[in-house]
Write a structure and sequence with these properties.
8-stranded mixed β-sheet; alpha/beta; 8 strands; disordered N terminus
């Protein structure tokens, strides 16, 4: 009888291992506008911005949540190495992750992308209690063009839009930002022309270009920011991060900048790059010192 019992318990453990995560911690899809996004050009998947929700296991949650914006030059989305892999890593730290599937060009241009990012922060904050998050512990993390979107949300925010639904009436200001090899400037020689064209079209208005050159939009209300870049990045020059850091410093916003010598553009968490792998550990330390990670 004891042998049978032991075998049964082993079988149960094996089944649990192969079944994966419990149902309550498996990623779930949440539409940002269940009845259709503003300015939607149709009702296909690419017209319906959403969040893929990753909640850490019960008992491990730290009360912090992060909206993750994958890169892709505003023409696509790197949903794996700048999306799901990041979300799973955040869950391992006890942080809830929300991977944003935002609208991109050439089908969509500004302000659709910004509206999707703002709505994502509002959505997470509005549902904070249900996700085990403290409402003032909602951050945003962007890679490359997703870093431009994240920095746009961090410099173009409001305390809520009157007249909208309950979600719209919530603040869209992130409590902190993480910008990984971000596109920032549209008005300098360091601009990533492809991202700018996909976002704004071929002949954008000069004032709009200035408004979305986010190093020019930093104020004292801009959230604390962690920046990571590489000197060898030949796609998005590290001057983008430097310009944003200098603007943060000028406005006395808490900020930390790390520029590594080697490393191509788009390394994600860089777990397979020994020369860069430490950057995620530096981020963990920064989150802890800022009070967002217990």
């Amino acid at each position: 009888m004891r042998v049978l019992t032991a075998s049964f318990l082993i079988a149960i453990c094996l089944v649990s291992m192969f079944q994966g995560a419990p149902e309550d911690v498996k990623p779930k899809l949440a539409l940002l506008w269940p009845d259709g996004a503003p300015g939607a050009a149709g009702d296909a998947e690419e017209d319906r911005p959403s969040l893929i929700v990753y909640v850490p296991p019960q008992g491990k949650a730290t009360g912090t949540g992060i909206v993750v914006c994958p890169g892709g030059g505003y023409a696509g989305l790197a949903m794996d190495y700048e999306g799901s892999q990041v979300a799973e890593w955040l869950n391992s730290l006890g942080i809830a992750a929300f991977v944003l599937k935002y609208r991109v060009g050439p089908r969509y241009h500004h302000p659709a992308e910004m509206e999707d990012g703002q709505r994502a922060v509002r959505f997470v904050r509005f549902h904070a209690n249900g996700y085990g998050i403290v409402p003032d512990h909602v951050g945003i993390w962007g890679f490359s063009a997703g870093g431009h979107l994240a920095s746009t949300i961090g410099t173009h925010f409001d305390n809520g839009k009157p007249g909208g639904d309950a979600v719209d009436r919530v603040s869209c200001r992130p409590d902190f930002m993480v910008l990984a090899y971000p596109v920032i400037s549209f008005t300098t020689p360091y601009a990533h022309k492809g991202s700018m064209r996909n976002l704004l079209g071929d002949k954008p208005d000069v004032q709009l270009v200035q408004s979305l050159s986010n190093e020019l939009q930093v104020t004292r209300q801009t959230p604390p920011t962690f920046l990571f870049h590489t000197n060898a990045d030949d796609a998005v020059p590290p001057e983008n991060s430097v310009l944003f850091y200098m603007a943060l410093r000028k406005n006395e916003v808490p900020a930390e900048l790390h520029i590594f010598a080697a490393g191509r553009h788009g390394v994600g968490l860089a777990h397979n790059h020994p020369e860069l792998a430490i950057w995620s550990k530096l981020l963990v330390n920064w989150l802890r010192t800022q009070g967002f990670l217990k």
